[in-house]
Structure formats: C-alpha cells, structure tokens
Amino acid sequence: MTRIVYLNGDYLPENEAKISIFDRGFLMADGVYEVTTVLGGKLLDFAGHAKRLERSLSELEMDKPAGFDDLLEIHRELVRANDIEDGLIYLQITRGSDGDRDFAYPAAGTPATLMLFTQSKPGLATSPAAQKGIKVISIPDQRWGRRDIKTVQLLYPSMGKMMAKTAGCDDAWMIEDGHVTEGTSNNAYIIKNGRIITRHLGNEILHGITRAAVLRFAREAQMEVEERAFTLAEALAADEAFITSASAFVMPVVEIDGVAVGSGAPGPVASRLREIYIDESRKAAV
Ligand code: PDD
Asked: Do 137 and 276 fall into the same domain?
C-alpha cells in the first residue's frame, strides 16, 4: 500500500509530494515540527501538540497555515487513509520559499509549507525495549540556546544518537554546566528515595507533552516530583532513571556511561508510570 501524505492542501501518494529546492526548511532548517502518537487509531494529546506547535510558530514569527480544527481533521484523515492502528504522525511547517536563497526571511505573505506523513508502528505500546530498559551515554550539549522551540534543526541530536550507537547504547543524555539537560529526542528523569526529579522548564529543554502528562499523573498518584536540574553524578547514583517522549512513552534507563542504574533493570516507579501514562492517554485519545 502506498503511503498517503499531506502537502499544502493535498493528500498524495508519497512519491508525488514535491517541494521547492529553495524551501527554507531545506536550506536553513527554518521550520518547526510535531510528532503525535496514534494508539488504537486515535490521537494522544492532540491538543497539547497543537498548543506547542502554535508556540513554536509564534516564537519564530511564522504564520500559522491552518487552524486547530483543520489540523485535527488532516491528522484523522491520514490515520484513515493509511489505516494506522498504532504509529506516529509527523507534522512539519517551514517558512516556505520565495524562489531563491536569502538569509533574510521572505516577504510577508509567502506561503508556509505544511506537510504531514504517518509512520505505522504496530504494537507501539508493547515495545520489548520497555521490558529491558535502554542504555545511554553522556555527551556535551552542543545545541543552540532555544531548545524550547521544536525546530527541525536536529543535526546535533542525530550525531548524539550515532555516538550512542557506536558505543553500543541506545541514546545519549546531554550535559551542560555539569547538569543533564535531556536526551537526544526525549526528556530525562531520575528517581531518588521515591522522588521523581526532572529538569525544570526553560529555554534549555523541549517542553515535552509527554513530560507534562506524566508529571500530572505522578502528582495525582501522590508521587513526589522535583522539577530541578540534576547532575550526571546524581543520575549515576539514582535508584531509577527513565525518559519520556511521544514515541517512547515512559522508557526505563538501566545504564548510564556503562554504570548500572539501581539494580540495572527497569524499576518499579518507571514501570508504574509507564502503565499509568499508557492507560490514561488511551482513555483520553481523540
Ligand atoms: N522528540 N526533548 C527533545 C529534544 C525531543 O526531541 C522530544 C520529542 C522530547 C519529548 O517531547 P514529547 O513528549 O512532546 O514527544 C523532549 C520527538 C518524539 C521526535 O523528535 O521524534
């Protein structure tokens, strides 16, 4: 079955979707994106993703090419057209092109490029990795200073993922001024004496939609949450560690820089949070 994608108002077979070589997303990484999870044919936390998208656009003074209802309908149509049970929907908006390369933004009124595609991932919520946990390495955080904006400039995170692969690991946690910022494509957490510790919001990390939901569920379950920066040394001495993202949900981290975290197996708090997150998100899916 050929995948149907969305581009600027049209639903097309993926090989018929074409954009200009002058598109600023391609030349300047001048664009933003969102990744929304589909479970059981329904969207998880669509409202959260739509809200963050709006913020990313406004921080970059980019026009919004479609409203909330239109975006929701496009997501749903792609789920239908591609018969997605479990998977992801990738949405990207770039500043488009006025037909040449220029550092200055194109004239006002130049249409943005709006593109979405699906990735089918049957059984996404029952990933075997969650049973085993993942291994991470630490690397310096060499990204730009506005990581709160979800831009498509993902070269350093890609390099980080490759460094992790080369080291026989699954991901990298990035370190700045001695403190963990986040994973290459996820937020980072440790658990010490029953307290869940994760970096506070700011320009240094992406404000994860999964993070917001997980912290809400944790507080509702009377777990203690501390939103503050933590050091690599604290992480190495933690009882448990985990990451969150739209695609990984809550994923235990069992090793950091070759050192076992806690028992070296997924811990009870991370496992419970994963269960709660998946159950509650499924219930609220649209
Ligand atoms: N990544 N931090 C970074 C740097 C991210 O790229 C992501 C998401 C997150 C988690 O955000 P959320 O919970 O809203 O997915 C944190 C997506 C999944 C990606 O790039 O594929």
From this structure: yes
What are the pocket residues of ligand 1 if the criterion is a CB atom closer than 6 Å to any ligand atom? 35, 182, 185-187, 206, 208-211, 244-247
Q: Tell me how far the alpha carbon of residue 206 lies from the centroid of ligand 1, in angstroms.
A: 7
**The domain containing residue 168 runs over which residues?**
129-284
Please tell me the distance between residue 232's alpha carbon and the centre of ligand 1 in angstroms.
21
192 classed as catalytic = no
How far does the centroid of ligand 1 lie from the alpha carbon of residue 245, in Å? 5
Looking at the fold, whether 51 and 89 belong to one and the same domain comes out as yes
Distances (CA, A) of 22 to 45, 103, 132, 155, 212: 33, 12, 44, 20, 36
Q: How distant is the alpha carbon of residue 183 from its chain centre?
A: 10
Q: Is there a single domain that holds both residue 66 and residue 25?
A: yes
pLDDT tens per residue across span 184-209:
999 999 999 999 999 999 999 999 99
Looking up residue 65, the CATH number of its domain turns out to be 3.30.470.10
